[in-house]
Amino acid sequence: MFVINDEILEGVMEVVEDDYLDMTDIMSLLREQTDDVPSLLRIAAIVAEHVVITGRVVPGDLTDEGLIPWPTSPRDSAARIVAEANSQADEEREVYPGDIAWFDLPRRVAARAAGDDPAAPRA
Question: Which domain of life is it from (predicted)?
Answer without folding.
Answer: Bacteria
